[in-house]
Amino acid sequence: MGQKRILLIVAGGIAAYKSLELVRLLKRQGLAVRAVMTKSANEFVTPLSMGVMTEDQVYGDMFDLKDEREIGHIQLSRQADLVVICPATANILAKMASGIADDLATTVLLATDKPVLAVPAMNVRMWNHPATQRNLAQLRKDGVTIMAPDEGAMACGEYGPGRLPEPPVIAEHICAMLRHDFDSTLTAGRAPTTKSAAASLSAQPDFADISHRPLYGRHVLVTAGPTHEAIDPVRYIANRSSGKQGFAIAQAAAELGATVTLVAGPVQLETPPGVIRIDVESARDMLAAVENSLPADVAIMVAAVADWRAADVPDQKIKKDGQGVPPLALTENPDILATLGQHAQRPGLLIGFAAETEKVVEHAQAKLGKKGCDWIVANDVSGDVMGGTNNAVHIVTRDGVESWGDAPKEAIARKLMEKIAHALGQG
Ligand code: C5P
What we know:
About 30% of the residues lie in helices and about 25% in strands. By secondary structure, it is α/β, with parallel strands linked by helices. Strand 2 (about 30-35), helix 2 and strand 3 form a beta-alpha-beta unit. The chain binds cytidine-5'-monophosphate (C5P). Cytidine-5'-monophosphate (C5P) binds near residues 303, 305, 333, 335 and 352. The site of cytidine-5'-monophosphate has 13 residues, from helix 12 and strand 17.
């Protein structure tokens, strides 16, 4: 596969100077970067320094006829594999959310058919303002991935969320997104598909673990939800998994600063802020998406993957033909967790879930060895855990068993991610 290309849109905020460092890191990963700067971005960074970093022309003026002839805004918006807005100010987010196109940057954003990542940076009050939050919610619905901002002291002297994440973390997020081929309907809010990996990226980005959040600079991979296994074009085999526990874990990981890839089966849940979501249907799609997402520091396989699928899936709907019940032959699905357990790029910490209806801990202990993972989070699903709001789990490791009583799935998720952060911290 050829070199991957980023179109970087720089809006005018105090954090704009950090976009130069971002470009340096992306180039080091072998990516091509082309920049569009808004008029106010020029007040913070000169196009000259940006051009030196990108080793390319810097685009800025919509009405530079020469540029419009050589490379119009439509072309500019389509030539990239990923469009990144960094920093994304409250102003550019508001324009995007309402479809305003009054300069080159916003016109490109309206014209693009490529996935878009926004990296917001602004004053805490601007970030918390209902208008900004409304715009962010709209943009998420439109299929834009939004990185969660950092929390901390700001250039304006206030404190809170709204700081630009450190450039190495943004670069890692971009690399994680580029490992997937998102289809061009992404901007219409539809599910991205997974096809192939970005071969031009180095396998293991050499980003330093830099910040105050315990999982900053780490890549956490989570699977969630059920899988659907086709019987024919209209029928499928499914299970009762809602995806709630896996989504809560993805959210908790993102809140601890991780770059999170969430591979989700068919569920009706909103993507947690900042999380890279890959929607899949079947177990085989899920395995492909998981392998595509590697390398990862931690993988938490929460999905209730169907163990079996139909051996033959006809192209046409199976008809009731009065000849009795059609036979349904099943075949085994790949075991994603066990595959990762033996993978050349096995995540440093590999965690499985085990839904059991009896001898919960005993079965989980057996599963540790069988699947080649480090921890098993075991739960009793004989009640209403599947699809419910609460969970009670046993964390089974080679050192013993820790049991956590009934609690909301979000609380279990936070506690689990804290335990993971602690384990990683201890090396
Ligand atoms: O064997 P069992 O289904 O009980 O194992 C559960 C664990 O294995 C979960 O972490 C689940 O996500 C994972 N799994 C998998 N691929 C399968 C079946 C289960 O990754 N085909």
